[in-house]
Amino acid sequence: MIVYNLHGERVAEVGPRGAAIDSERDALELIQEAVSSDARFVAIPAERLSGDFFRLNTKKAGEFIQKFVNYRLRVAILGDISSHTEASEPLADFVRESNRGKSVWFVRDSHELHARLAPAPLAAAD
Q1: In principle, which of 72, 86, 104, 107 could form an S-S bond with 98, CB 3.0–4.6 Å?
Q2: What are the pLDDT digits (tens) for 106-118?
């Protein structure tokens, strides 16, 4: 896990290689590592998540994400998940709804995460 500051937010980013992540136990391990690094935002590569995570009927995504919300940590899933959202309208709805909020985001890459965390530009004075 790499920890860095991004627009005033301390981000813990999980590496792209390693075992699949999807259980509540996996979430708690990531949370513990993030909290011990004073991070308040965790970025997880989509390729690290198991296929079950993207099948909402397994409830893995909900249980996993709920752990982060309970610990008041924000979380972003980084990567192209279009094959999953194209195959599941409920997942597409879940992703769209999550991206409207501030706690859970599904973003294409770290550049999109950077843009979303950037402060809003100040309005020009007349």
Answers
A1: 104
A2: 999 988 999 998 8
